Amino acid sequence: NSPTLVASAGAATKLIDTCRATNEITIEAWIKPQNTTQSGPARIVSLSADPYNRNFTLGQGGVGVGGTSYNTRLRTTTTGNNGALLSLTAGIINTALSHVVYTRDTTGLAKFYLNGVEVGSRADIGGDLSNWDTSFRFGLANELTQDRPWLGTFYKVAIYDLVLSAVDVSQNFNAGSTSEEGKPGKPVYAGN
After folding, report:
1. Which pTM was predicted?
2. Are 82 and 63 in contact (CB under 8 A)?
3. Measured between alpha carbons, how far apart are the two ends of the chain, in Å?
4. How far is residue 93's CA from residue 13's CA, in Å, rounded to a whole number?
5. 95 within 8 A of 36, measured Cβ to Cβ
6. Exposure of 190 by Cβ count < 10 A (0-12 exposed, 13-18 middle, 19+ buried)?
7. How far apart are CA 145 and CA 165, in angstroms?
């Protein structure tokens, strides 16, 4: 309802170490944005220090796209400390309950899924995750500096140290979209 921040008390060491070890990541979230005008990008989920230094961010909006698209930034040895050199912007945001998934594999192929359907990809997010900062904290609904708030409702956020396949994403969407009261159900893939 108003800007806030939910964050780990210290560095998200387990998350950082496991993703660095596999050089893969999946960010999965069931969310309901409050509106389509948030920008910045407004931080839905982030592993970062401030607006310019991050390991990853899933956000709403971004430069030149307003609040109508999702923006994902991933730090690799080729994308810079902000991960913005090769960000992936995809999907049309509305205020309905939505299942959003970002994946990036070891070859540099990144995909974005919205409600079980691939809506964007790029194959040039190369390098590896060895340059991830091990001191960064995990945060929801804002940047750690509390100047990129996201407003809406969280139903689920999951980070995997591997790439969910299109079949896995579809199964998780279908499991969640048919649960009672429209709330996400238990994921089919439990992961590490």
Report:
1. 0.91
2. no
3. 33
4. 31
5. yes
6. exposed
7. 34
Nearest to 133 by CA among 9, 10, 11: 11
- Nearest-angstrom CA–CA distance, 158 and 169: 12
For residue 91, list its beta bridge partners: none
pLDDT tens-digit series, residues 108-159: 999 999 999 999 999 999 999 999 999 999 999 999 999 999 999 999 999 9
Q: Contact 189/171 with Cβ under 8 angstroms? A: yes
- The tokens for 61 are 């909006």
